[in-house]
C-alpha cells in the first residue's frame, strides 16, 4: 500500500469545503400498461401484459391450494416437487429439454395458501412454455419411481432446511401467532413426507389442481391479445367442475409474551415479533405502509438507524408487511449476537412506543412516501418484478389499475394519518413473537426485561 | 442480443465512464467499481476490503453519517455495495429524477470520505454480525467460498478468508483505512457506469460537474496473483457443527477469464452440461439414476462467472446422504467428466445450455441494477463493457471439442477437495 498516504483528516476535507445536495429533476411517469385481463371458459383468470424491455416472457400461475388434515402439507409438497417430472407426452428429460431449448425455466412451489408455477422463456418460445405447463396441468403422471425418489430427496432437504436458524424461527413464530391453523404448515414433517404415495399425489392433483379460482399472469415482449388467445388454445383442455380450495379464515394475531426457543450453542439469536395489520384492500393500508417504512421498512428507518448504525447490534433488521388472503400482519425481525439480544429487544420495543408517541414528522413522512413511490416504479420496471407485483395483487382480487393508482394514494396520505396508523398498529402490547437462541445465555437478561417466557 | 447504445469516455483525472442510455426505462442505475477486492488486502488484515466497503457508506465531506442512505432512499432509490475478489462495487438505482443526486453522492465519497474511529468501531460490530449471520451461525456457512480456496491455493491473496477473521477485523485502524483509500480509491482506479433514462450529453455534463474536480492520483500497479496449479489432489476436512448432511466441494483451476475468454466459456458451458436442469449429466446420475445426492451444482467462479481475473476457480459441490463416501461420489464425477472428454456432447445438448445462457443474460439486462453492475464489471475487468452483449453469441459458438477439452482438463491429480463433516446433531432441534 501507499506508505506516504494522507491522514484520515486530510482525506476527509477539501479546500472548497462541503457542497450542497442537488435537487431532484422532473420525473416522468411509468408508461401506461398495455394488458388484457380476462376469464377463460374453464374459469382461469388470465392477465397478459406487454412490457417489451427484453425479448423474454415471465409466467406466474397461482392455484389456491389450501387443505387440512394430517399429512396434507406433505402430499402438497411432494406434488410440487414432482409435477414437472413427467406427463403423458413427456418424460422428465423431455420436459427439461423442451424448456432449455427456448431458454426456459419452470418451477413449482407450494405454501399453505397456493400452488405456484413460476417461470420464463425467450418470448419466441411462449407457445412451448405454455405447452409444457398445460401438459403438466392436464396429464402430470406422478410415476411411482419419480415420486419415491423425490420424496426421499425431500426428506433430506427438509433436514437441511430445519437446521437453518431462520427456518427454526419461522416455524416457531407461525405456531406462536396462529396456533395449529393450516396456514402455519409451511414445511411438512419428514415422517409425513416419507408416507406419501404416488396414488395420493395423483388424487390431490385431480381434486385441487384446477383452473377455477386460479390466475395466470404473463408479462413480457408479447402481444396481450394474441397471448391470451394462445393460452385459450393450449390451456382450454384444463377443466374441472370444482373451484380451487381456499384457506379457512385466519384469526388475527393477538399480542402476548415472546416465546424463547432454545438452540444450544447458538452464537446469534433470531428475534421475530408480529402484530395484526391490514392488507392492500383496506383504506388504512397506504398510511400503514408509510408508518411501517418509517419504523423499520427501509434502511433509513428508526429501527435500522438505532440498532445497526448507532449501536452495532445487528447486520440485518427490518420490518415488513406479510400478506395473507384475509389481511396482513406486521413482521419485525433482527438477528443479533447473544450478548446484545435483550438490549436489541429493548430498543425494538422502545421504537414501537416512540412511533406512536413521537410520530413520524412531516419530513420523515415525505421521505418514506418518496421511497415507496420510487421503489414501486423501480420494482415494476422489469418483467419479473412486474409479474410478481401483479401476482400479489390478483391474489386479493386487485388488478393493474390498483398499481397505476397507488402512487396517487401514497401522495394523499397525511402526516396525521401516518401518526394514527403508528399508534394503532405499532402499540407495543399488540405484538407477540419468538426469540431463538441459546437460552442459557439469554434468559437472565430477558427475564429481567419481562414479556418473555421460557419454552 | 442487439447491443444497446454504449458510450465511453475518460475524465482528465483518469475516471473511466460508461454510459448506456435506455429511453424505455423510467429509472437510472449509477455504479462505481473500484479496482480492488479482497485479494488485494494486506496480510494480517483479512476482511479489510469488505470492512472498508462498509465505511464508504458512513459519510463524506458533504454528508453526515446516515445521510447517504437517507438521500438515496428519499429520492425513491435503493443502494448497496459488495466486495469481490478483484473489485468492489457501489450502486444506486432510482427514478431518473434522482440522477444528479446519485452522481453527487458517489463523487463526494470518491473525493473525501469521513474515516472516523467511531464509524470504524460501529462497522466492525456490524460486519461481525454479518459474519455470524452468514457463516458462523448457519449450516454450510461460507461453504465453499471461504474454505475451498484455502485448500486449492497456496498464496495469501488467493487462499485467505475474504470475510476476515474477527481478530484481524478488530485490529483495523483509521490509519489503515486512510492508506487503503489513498492507494486504491483513486479515480484512475475506478469505472463509473450510468444506465437507463439518460441522454448522453446530459449525463456527461453532470458527470464532469461532480467528478471533474476529484483530484487525480495515480492508480496502483496491478499485482499479479498467479500461482502454479496444484500438482496433486489436495484434501481438507471442514467440521460444521450446524450441518445436517455431509457435503464436499471440488475446486479446479481454469483458464484465464480475461485473456482466454473462449476457453473460459468452454468451462462455463461444461458447468451447465453437468448440473443445469433435470437432464444435465450429474443431476441425472446423482439425483435420479443412482440417487445418492441431495443437491449438486457446478460453476465457474465461486461467486459466479466474470467476477475475477486469473486465477479463477471451477467448482463442483455435492450435498449427499450420510453413509455415501466422498470417494465414491468423486469417482462418479470423474467418470462423467471422462465420458464427456472422450465423446464430446452433441449439438442439441450444447444448444440447451447456450439458450439458457442467452435467456439469463436477457434477464440480467432487464433489471437496471444488474445491467449497470454488469457493464461496470466488464469495463473494469475486460476494458470492454460491450463484451456483455457479445456473450450470447460467443457462448453459442462454443464447440463440442472445447467442452470436451475443458472436461479433460479437470484432472483428479490437480484439484482440491473440501469435505464438510456434519456436527454432533445440536442443529435442527425444534424446541
CA radius of gyration of chain B is 23 Å
Task: Give the class of chain B from helix and strand content and strand pairing.
Answer: alpha+beta
What letter string, H or E per element, gives the SSE order of chain B? EEEHHEEHHHHHHEHEEHHEEHHHHHE
Could you give me the name of the CATH homologous superfamily of the largest domain in chain B?
A: Metalloenzyme, LuxS/M16 peptidase-like
Strand order of the largest sheet of chain B: 1-2-6-3-5-4
Which stretches of chain B are low in confidence, meaning pLDDT under 50 for 5 or more residues running?
A: 425-431
Low-confidence stretches of chain A: none
Under the CATH scheme, the architecture of the largest domain in chain A is 2-Layer Sandwich
* DSSP strand count of chain B: 11
Mean residue pLDDT of chain B: 94
Q: What is the name of the CATH architecture of the largest domain in chain B?
A: 2-Layer Sandwich
Count of individual helical segments of chain A: 17
Shape of chain A: globular
Distance between the ends of chain A: 53 Å
Structure description:
The complex is a heterodimer of chains A (455) and B (431). Chain A contains 17 helices and twelve strands. Chain A is of the alpha+beta class. Chain A folds into two domains: 34-235, Cytochrome Bc1 Complex, Chain A, domain 1; 258-453, Cytochrome Bc1 Complex, Chain A, domain 1 (2-Layer Sandwich). A six-stranded mixed β-sheet of chain A has the order 1-2-6-3-5-4, sandwiched between helices. In chain A, helix 2 (72-82) crosses helix 8, helix 12 (341-357) runs parallel beside helix 17 and helix 13 (362-379) packs antiparallel against helix 15. The longest helix of chain A has 19 residues, at 144-162. By secondary structure, chain B is of the alpha+beta class. Helix content of chain B is 42%, strand content 18%. Chain B contains 16 helices and eleven strands. Chain B has helices at residues 48-55, 67-73, 99-111, 117-136, 148-152, 156-159, 166-171, 174-184, 200-211, 261-275, 281-289, 326-342, 347-366, 368-382, 387-396, 400-409; strands spanning 7-10, 16-21, 27-34, 78-83, 88-95, 190-196, 233-240, 247-253, 293-300, 313-320, 415-422. A six-stranded mixed β-sheet of chain B has the order 1-2-6-3-5-4, sandwiched between helices. The relative contact order of chain B is 0.17. The interface between A and B is large, with 103 and 106 residues.
Amino acid at each position: 500500500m501507499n506508505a506516504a498516504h494522507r491522514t484520515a483528516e486530510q482525506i476527509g476535507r477539501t479546500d472548497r469545503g462541503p457542497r450542497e445536495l442537488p435537487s431532484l429533476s422532473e420525473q416522468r411517469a411509468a408508461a401506461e400498461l398495455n394488458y388484457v385481463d380476462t376469464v377463460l371458459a374453464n374459469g382461469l383468470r388470465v392477465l397478459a401484459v406487454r412490457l417489451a424491455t427484453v425479448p423474454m416472457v415471465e409466467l406466474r400461475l397461482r392455484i389456491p391450494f389450501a387443505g387440512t388434515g394430517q399429512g396434507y402439507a406433505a402430499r402438497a409438497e411432494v406434488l410440487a416437487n414432482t409435477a414437472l417430472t413427467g406427463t403423458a407426452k413427456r418424460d422428465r428429460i423431455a420436459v427439461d429439454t423442451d424448456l432449455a431449448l427456448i431458454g426456459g425455466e419452470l418451477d413449482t412451489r407450494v405454501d399453505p395458501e397456493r400452488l405456484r408455477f413460476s417461470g420464463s422463456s425467450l418470448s419466441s418460445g411462449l407457445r412451448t412454455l405454455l405447452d409444457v405447463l398445460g401438459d403438466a396441468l392436464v396429464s402430470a403422471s406422478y410415476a411411482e419411481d419419480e415420486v419415491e425418489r423425490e420424496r426421499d430427496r425431500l426428506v433430506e432437504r427438509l433436514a437441511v432446511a430445519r437446521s437453518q436458524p431462520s427456518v427454526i424461527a419461522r416455524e416457531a413464530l407461525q405456531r406462536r401467532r396462529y396456533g395449529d391453523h393450516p396456514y402455519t404448515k409451511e414445511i411438512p414433517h419428514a415422517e409425513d413426507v416419507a408416507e406419501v404415495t404416488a396414488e395420493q399425489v395423483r388424487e390431490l392433483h385431480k381434486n385441487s389442481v384446477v383452473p377455477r379460482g386460479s390466475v395466470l399472469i404473463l408479462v413480457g415482449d408479447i402481444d396481450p391479445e394474441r397471448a391470451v388467445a394462445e393460452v385459450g388454445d393450449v390451456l382450454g383442455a384444463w377443466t374441472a367442475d370444482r373451484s380451487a380450495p381456499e384457506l379457512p379464515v385466519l384469526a388475527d394475531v393477538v399480542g402476548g409474551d415472546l416465546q424463547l426457543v432454545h438452540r444450544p450453542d447458538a452464537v446469534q439469536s433470531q428475534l421475530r415479533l408480529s402484530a395484526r395489520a391490514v392488507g392492500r384492500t383496506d383504506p388504512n393500508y397506504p398510511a400503514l405502509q408509510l408508518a411501517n417504512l418509517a419504523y423499520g421498512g427501509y434502511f433509513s428507518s428508526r429501527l435500522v438507524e438505532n440498532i445497526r448504525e448507532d449501536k452495532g447490534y445487528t447486520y440485518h433488521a427490518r420490518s415488513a408487511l406479510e400478506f395473507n388472503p384475509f389481511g396482513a400482519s406486521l413482521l419485525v425481525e433482527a438477528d443479533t449476537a447473544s450478548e446484545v439480544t435483550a438490549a436489541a429487544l429493548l430498543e425494538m420495543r422502545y421504537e414501537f412506543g416512540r412511533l406512536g408517541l413521537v410520530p413520524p414528522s412531516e419530513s420523515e413522512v415525505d421521505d418514506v412516501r418518496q421511497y415507496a413511490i420510487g421503489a414501486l416504479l423501480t420494482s415494476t420496471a422489469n418483467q419479473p418484478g412486474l409479474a410478481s407485483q401483479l401476482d400479489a395483487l390478483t391474489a386479493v382480487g386487485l388488478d393493474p389499475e390498483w398499481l397505476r393508482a397507488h402512487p396517487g394514494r401514497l401522495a394523499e396520505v397525511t402526516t396525521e394519518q401516518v401518526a394514527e396508523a403508528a399508534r394503532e398498529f405499532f402499540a407495543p402490547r399488540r405484538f407477540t413473537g419468538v426469540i431463538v437462541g441459546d437460552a442459557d445465555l439469554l434468559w437472565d437478561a430477558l427475564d429481567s426485561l419481562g414479556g418473555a417466557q421460557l419454552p | 442480443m442487439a447491443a444497446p447504445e454504449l458510450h465511453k469516455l475518460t475524465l482528465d483525472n483518469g475516471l473511466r465512464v460508461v454510459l448506456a442510455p435506455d429511453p424505455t426505462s423510467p429509472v437510472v442505475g449509477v455504479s462505481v467499481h473500484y479496482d480492488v477486492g479482497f485479494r488485494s488486502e494486506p496480510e494480517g488484515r483479512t476482511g479489510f476490503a469488505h470492512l472498508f466497503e462498509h465505511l464508504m457508506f458512513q459519510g463524506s465531506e458533504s454528508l453526515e453519517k446516515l445521510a447517504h442512505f437517507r438521500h438515496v432512499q428519499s429520492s425513491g432509490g435503493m443502494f448497496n455495495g459488495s466486495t469481490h475478489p478483484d473489485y468492489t462495487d457501489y450502486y444506486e438505482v432510482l427514478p431518473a429524477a434522482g440522477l444528479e443526486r446519485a452522481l453527487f453522492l458517489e463523487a463526494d465519497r470518491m473525493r473525501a470520505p469521513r474515516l472516523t474511529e467511531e464509524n470504524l468501531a460501529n462497522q466492525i460490530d456490524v460486519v461481525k454480525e454479518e459474519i455470524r449471520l452468514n457463516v458462523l451461525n448457519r449450516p454450510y456457512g461460507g461453504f465453499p467460498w471461504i474454505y475451498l480456496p484455502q485448500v486449492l491455493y497456496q498464496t495469501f491473496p488467493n487462499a485467505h478468508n475474504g470475510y476476515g477473521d474477527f481478530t484481524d477485523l478488530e485490529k483495523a485502524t483509521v490509519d489503515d483505512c486512510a492508506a487503503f483509500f489513498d492507494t486504491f480509491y483513486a479515480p484512475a482506479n475506478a469505472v463509473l457506469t450510468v444506465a437507463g433514462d439518460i441522454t448522453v450529453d446530459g449525463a456527461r455534463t453532470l458527470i464532469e460537474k461532480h467528478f471533474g474536480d476529484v483530484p487525480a492520483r495515480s492508480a496502483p500497479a496491478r499485482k499479479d496473483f498467479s500461482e502454479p496449479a496444484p500438482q496433486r489432489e489436495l484434501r481438507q476436512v471442514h467440521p460444521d457443527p450446524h450441518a445436517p448432511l455431509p457435503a464436499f466441494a471440488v475446486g479446479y483451476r481454469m483458464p484465464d477469464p480475461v485473456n482466454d475468454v473462449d476457453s473460459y466459456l468452454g468451462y462455463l458451458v461444461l458447468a451447465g452440461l453437468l448440473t443445469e436442469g433435470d437432464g444435465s449429466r450429474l443431476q441425472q446420475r446423482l439425483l435420479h439414476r443412482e440417487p445418492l445426492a441431495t443437491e449438486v451444482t457446478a460453476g465457474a467462479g465461486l461467486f459466479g462467472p466474470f467476477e475475477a481475473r486469473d486465477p479463477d476457480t471451477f467448482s463442483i459441490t455435492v450435498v449427499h446422504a450420510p453413509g455415501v463416501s466422498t470417494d465414491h461420489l468423486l469417482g462418479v464425477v470423474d467418470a462423467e467428466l471422462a465420458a464427456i472428454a472422450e465423446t464430446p456432447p452433441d449439438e442439441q445438448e450444447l444448444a440447451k445450455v447456450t439458450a439458457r445462457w442467452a435467456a439469463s443474460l436477457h434477464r440480467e439486462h432487464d433489471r437496471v441494477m444488474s445491467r449497470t453492475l454488469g457493464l461496470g464489471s466488464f469495463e473494469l475487468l475486460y476494458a470492454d463493457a460491450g463484451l456483455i452483449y457479445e456473450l450470447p453469441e460467443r457462448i453459442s459458438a462454443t464447440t463440442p471439442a472445447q467442452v470436451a477439452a475443458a472436461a479433460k482438463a479437470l484432472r483428479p491429480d490437480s484439484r482440491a477437495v473440501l469435505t464438510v463433516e456434519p456436527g454432533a446433531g445440536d442443529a435442527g432441534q425444534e424446541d
